[in-house]
Design brief:
- The complex is a heterodimer.
- By secondary structure, chain A is an all-alpha fold.
- Helices cover about 75% and strands about 0% of the residues of chain A.
- Chain A is globular.
- By secondary structure, chain B is an alpha/beta fold.
- Chain B has 2 domains: about 180 residues, 3-Layer(aba) Sandwich (D-Maltodextrin-Binding Protein, domain 2); about 170 residues, Periplasmic binding protein-like II (D-Maltodextrin-Binding Protein, domain 2), CATH 3.40.190.10.
- In chain B, about 45% of the residues lie in helices and about 15% in strands.
- In chain B, strands 1, 2, 3, 4, 5, 6, 7, 8, 9, 10 and 11 form an 11-stranded mixed sheet that branches.
- Chain B starts with a helix and ends with a helix.
- The chains are: A mainly alpha, B alpha/beta.
- Chains A and B meet through helix 5, helix 8 and helix 13 of A and helix 3, strand 6, helix 8 and helix 15 of B.
Chain lengths: ~290, ~375
């Protein structure tokens, strides 16, 4: 029946998930072009134009000036501290985020729903509020007698709070689709739980886990609100990059501020790209 | 038929919204018919915020303040200055130090004659400005005076009395970041000025500043956040405006105020912006701030009044100094005032002169911060 196979004439209802997904491609042309121009306009206004402005600003004094701005002593000190703390926070959150997601998906207990909702709290809470709360809890007047303000540990803890949802939420859905079959098969064949996790579970989770780590790290680099108070903000000592950028804009040194911001962006972008590439490579190896 | 229910609900929602909108529009036009409300945009440095709440409430109770509303923005002085320069709506600006006004004049947001507005707009005559113990001379355009004081833990356990006590071992100083905060600049200059006042050379005074910055444990972005950090337990001495210290004490915070025997006179400028000049409500408010009533509100909040009459009536509430020269002024530090001070101390780039290679001729504080960071 050639008429039925001719997709331009057929009005068959898509049934398989693949067909349903491809369904959008069959929308009338005006819908597709409309959606496309809407997305492009939106992205331009929200992302591309500001980004272009930032780049223009950063390089307004030429490449040499950009380099000087980024490699000034205060900038390097701030960037180094920010990198160290962001990396530490991303690593801890990758492990803890996986553990949390695991508990949320694989375990069943009372209050699980509440816990699941709580994960998103760091997204909802203004970061400044988080900073003030941490200051009260872990500052010099800590009721727990733990003082970590003014140290890289304090900065890292604040960043860990802000970025936790990224790692949990990127692993959780993959973990939900992962069935027990492969794992139990491996276990039946005599693999230890650790080996099952390492050889069966982890390879499947790795791409999403790395995406989460990359997002957390990128988000951590730019964190300001929760960190600025906890760090004590001492230039050359405990000042994070975002705070340095803020002080530059306050002193009307917008070119230098943009330059350091671009340096942060390059670091973040580089991390995101390499992590997603690493994730794809590792998951290919697993298959 | 349940199928049609959402439609009816939606329709009802639309009509209700329409009716509400019409009612609101009617309400607005009725209001407009009765009296026009005028809004005044006030932008100020972080610490002065609470004073404006009081000033605005008092102004709204006067005939001139009827139907006047306020939009307030307060933050670290340099930040707010740049915000206004970049277009933040402002009719009245009350900033930390004169350089902020210079920035706004350059940006075309404040008339270059802002300092004389106090006489041309508010009718304050130079002869009525306070020029007694706290002010060596009456600076035009200044709305409040204050001095740099120390805030210590209640009872002053470390017995901190004078500037040398801040560089003793164990002293942990909190002062805001001079890159963002005007308060921070006043504080550091006060420590420097106190050394000059007792006869030290510039190099000796710089060396004091070096120790002071090395004893600094936190530099929050504004005067207000510095106070928050100190009250949160950081450090044991906070450098601050006297008015902010008094406000904290009145609020019941567990602190003691120590007024050092020599300090720096803080002069906070006010101006009507280019839009404020044409806003009658803003002009009326500006006049009120300079009136006896307005200055009394400020004096009760811990500011040293710039009006002689109000200062005389309230001076007993403030710490007294032995002699007028114990209060150093910015004009004494540099004959160009802030125009000369800003690059010398706070430039972000460090430049050395040909003679003295120990300390730079530009960016002294930046250099000292670097030293403290690498030491």
């Amino acid at each position: 029946m050639p008429a039925l196979l001719d997709s331009t004439n057929s009005r068959e209802v898509p049934t398989t998930p693949k067909q349903l997904l491809r369904g959008s491609g069959r929308s009338p042309k005006y819908v597709r072009s409309g959606a496309r121009s809407l997305a492009v306009t939106y992205l331009s206004v929200i992302v591309l134009i500001p980004f272009a402005a930032l780049l223009t600003n950063a390089f307004s004094g030429g490449l040499g000036q950009f380099w000087n701005d980024v490699t000034s002593l205060e900038s390097l000190d701030a960037l180094r501290l920010t990198l160290l703390c962001s990396l530490a926070a991303a690593v801890v959150n990758t492990v803890m985020g996986l553990a949390t997601a695991w508990v949320l998906v694989r375990d069943r207990f009372k209050g699980q729903g509440v816990l699941n909702t709580l994960i998103d709290l760091p997204f909802a809470l203004p970061t400044v509020v988080a900073g003030v709360t941490f200051y009260a809890l872990y500052g010099p007047l800590s009721p727990l007698h733990i003082t970590i303000t003014g140290t890289w540990i304090g900065i890292t803890v604040a960043i860990m709070f802000v970025t936790l949802p990224f790692t949990v939420r990127s692993v959780q859905p993959v973990l939900e689709t992962l069935t027990f079959t492969a794992e139990s098969a491996a276990a039946t064949l005599g693999a230890s739980p650790v080996r099952v996790f390492r050889t069966v579970t982890l390879p499947v989770l790795l791409p999403s886990l790395l995406t989460g780590t990359g997002l957390a790290f990128a988000r951590a680099l730019g964190e300001y609100g929760s960190v600025v108070f906890i760090s004590n903000n001492l230039p050359y000592r405990t000042e994070v990059a975002s705070s340095y950028i803020y002080s530059l804009t306050s002193s009307n040194e917008n070119g230098a501020a943009a330059a350091v911001a671009v340096a942060l962006l390059i670091l973040a972008l580089g991390t995101l790209v390499s992590f997603s590439a690493l994730g794809r490579f590792l998951s290919r190896g697993a298959k | 038929m349940p199928v049609f229910k959402p439609k009816t609900t939606a329709r009802r929602l639309v009509s209700t919204t329409l009716v509400t909108c019409l009612m609101a529009m009617g309400g607005v036009s009725t209001l407009a018919g009765a009296a026009t409300t005028t809004n005044v945009n006030v932008v100020g440095y972080s610490v002065v915020g609470p004073a404006y709440k009081a000033l605005e409430a008092a102004f709204e109770a006067t005939p001139a303040g009827q139907n006047v509303t306020f939009t307030n923005t307060f933050g670290s002085s340099d930040t707010e200055t740049n915000n206004v320069a970049k277009g933040l709506a402002a009719d009245v600006v009350n900033l930390s130090y004169a350089s902020n006004m210079a920035t706004l004049v350059t940006a075309g947001k404040v008339p270059s004659t802002w300092a004389s507005q106090e006489s041309t707009v508010a009718g304050v005559k130079q002869s009525t400005k306070a020029a007694l113990s706290q002010t060596v001379y009456p600076t035009p355009g200044i709305v409040t005076d204050s001095v740099v004081v120390f805030i210590v833990r209640k009872g002053n356990p470390l017995n901190i009395q004078d500037w040398p006590d801040l560089i003793k071992s164990g002293a942990q100083v909190v002062t805001p970041n001079p890159a963002t905060s005007g308060s921070a600049k006043w504080n550091l200059l006060a420590g420097y000025a106190a050394q000059l006042a007792k006869g030290d050379t510039t190099t000796q005074a710089y060396s004091y500043l070096k120790s002071l910055i090395s004893h600094t444990v936190a530099q929050p972005s504004s005067g207000s956040t510095a106070m928050a950090a100190f009250l949160g337990g950081t450090g044991n001495v906070l450098l601050d405006y006297e008015d902010d210290a008094i406000a904290a004490q009145n609020a019941g915070d567990a602190i003691s105020i120590v007024t050092p025997p020599t300090t720096l006179l803080i002069e906070n400028p006010i101006a009507l912006t280019t839009t404020g000049v044409n806003n009658p409500a803003a002009t009326a408010f500006y006049q009120y701030v300079f009136s006896t009533a307005g200055q009394t509100v400020l004096a009760n909040l811990g500011y040293r009044s710039v009006l002689k009459s109000v200062w005389t009536a309230t001076s007993s509430k403030f710490a007294a100094f032995k002699k007028a020269s114990d209060i150093y002024t910015v004009a004494q530090l540099n004959n160009q005032g802030w125009t000369g001070i800003d690059p010398t101390f706070f430039s972000s780039s460090i430049t050395y002169g040909t003679k003295n290679r120990t300390y730079p001729t530009q960016g002294v504080v930046t250099y000292l911060e670097q030293f403290a960071g690498t030491a």
